[in-house]
């Protein structure tokens, strides 16, 4: 996958040289290219922002430098078009499903803004030629979009074939599409079996795969109810079995009584 990032702070992306993403770049799985937006501003101060029309606080990034920068990238490979991603608090939520969608793209172009954002004519212009997504990583405001790009590249990059040592890890993630979608991942443990008086749950040492799977689902339900109860509303009640309903009832969340399901154990689910 090719990834281009246009920013006034390309040095912000040094973390992409380390860990899994850095290794993916070394192996040629991920081709990350950084571009300085100010190279496309031609006044003596290399200005990329100006005051907003209509008044108001802050500055707006000028369309001219962005247009030149994006045009230069598109000219490098006229036969292929990137999917352009604009980080903004007013965008659609970035989710695991969207990360998987991006991981299937051959070329992504990120345009992180500063100040009050990019002149809206830029997205209007390139929206006629490219798939342009305005995306938010959360309900808060950052000093700039660079950190949002780091988050998205980390989420997308680890889904590319060959990046994770165990491909199953991506399937088992919280929010990974599947029957357990929208449930948070439960607690995890490793050796030693006892640490400072805290013991690993006996079921995880039992070797009984069915019991382990049921325990993990129970814990995922409990954690989701405790930390993100709103996600439970997104789970179809038809996917809940009797034990699921019992666990949720223990947390104080009631499930419709008409939902029927087997009591003997979990269904086959990926989590």
UniProtKB/TrEMBL annotation:
Binding sites annotated in the UniProt record for S-adenosyl-L-methionine: 137-142
Documented EC number(s): 2.1.1.228
Keywords: Cytoplasm, Methyltransferase, S-adenosyl-L-methionine, Transferase, tRNA processing
InterPro entries (UniProt xref): Alpha/beta_knot_MTases, tRNA_m1G_MeTrfase_C_sf, tRNA_m1G_MeTrfase_TrmD, tRNA_m1G_MTases_N, tRNA_MeTrfase_TRMD/TRM10
UniProt domain tRNA methyltransferase TRMD/TRM10-type: residue ranges: 1-232
Gene3D superfamilies: 3.40.1280.10, tRNA(m1g37)methyltransferase, domain 2 (1.10.1270.20)
Top-level division of the source organism's lineage: Bacteria
SUPFAM superfamilies: alpha/beta knot
Family under the similarity heading: Belongs to the RNA methyltransferase TrmD family.
PANTHER family attached to this UniProt entry: TRNA (GUANINE-N(1)-)-METHYLTRANSFERASE
Subunit structure: Homodimer.
Protein name listed in UniProt: tRNA (guanine-N(1)-)-methyltransferase
Organism: Streptosporangium longisporum
Gene that encodes it: trmD
